[in-house]
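Narrative of activities, Objective 1.

The group set out to show that a structural description can be obtained from nothing but a protein's sequence at a throughput compatible with the screening campaign. Below is one input-output pair from the validation batch, recorded exactly as produced.
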Amino acid sequence: MDLNIQLTSAEHAQIWGAYQNASLTSAVLKYFDKKTEDGEIKPVIQDALALELSHLSKLKQIFEKENFPIPIGFTDNDINADAPRLYTDNFMLHYAIQMGQLGMVAFSTAIPMVTREDIYIFYSEGLRQYNEIHQKALLIALTKGLFVKPPAIPLLKEIDFVKKQSFLTGWFGERRPLTGMEITNLYSNMQRNNLGIATLTGFSQVAKSKEVKDYLVRGIEIAKKHVNVFSSVLSEGDIPTPSGSDSMVTQANEVSPFSDKLIMSHVTAMITLGIAFYGMSITTNIRRDLVTTYTRLSAEIALYSEDGANIMIDNEWLEEPPRMVDREELSKPQ
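Output recorded for this entry:
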């Protein structure tokens, strides 16, 4: 295995992003590890933390070998493990479930982009590891009755084909019943938004800056609006909807476990993932009204994300990702 092959732009970008994500997630999990009380949930949090710390170590070695500057990311200065308990064990378990799911999505997306063997192995092993975390956390949630499964639909009795173009419509008149994939997307996006509401609610209780606090409150209202939109579509089809997440947050509000920098970075990362999942929903939905809905909601959170990025830039919290050199800037006289 020749490790002297120069990293491609894709590989450089992927490992930089992976380092930032592992740095952020490990900081949050360090706090969770100190606060988890349930004897079954705590080992999952510890396994998730160990995985992220392992990824940080491996990625740091790659950066050092390539003589690239190691990203700053997040440190122990961004967390206060002695702060009061902000979230319940139920929230922390669902956080681990989402971490496993999002890790699998990110690493499976990275694998086709990388070619150097050590980078390929890192992402391949990571995909398996995130799958294990997801499986462990999901099994505990199911056993404890803390995970609401997507609704079931009747089994097909025979194969049929679409015969009318009205199958695609949905703006006017009678809408056809939702397909299984459309239900899955609506349901999953509702669950992610509900977890997002809980996350932002906790953050808003402890954020120090009024600007950050106001931004979080705005995000909560946007997420609630999106939940209502998805819920109305499901209810129209007599499909049960997942419950909210108020019980996942405590009333702690005096001492923040997280820096405002970490909070804003976490929120903008969630928004980016939300846009990605809405995009995936567009590609797998057939009813035109749903495609229009996802497009409209994506535009709304994209604007919200831009406002968050501006807050981070103003406070010098946004670390610049790898990019091509600016030849015009280099040519200017010193």
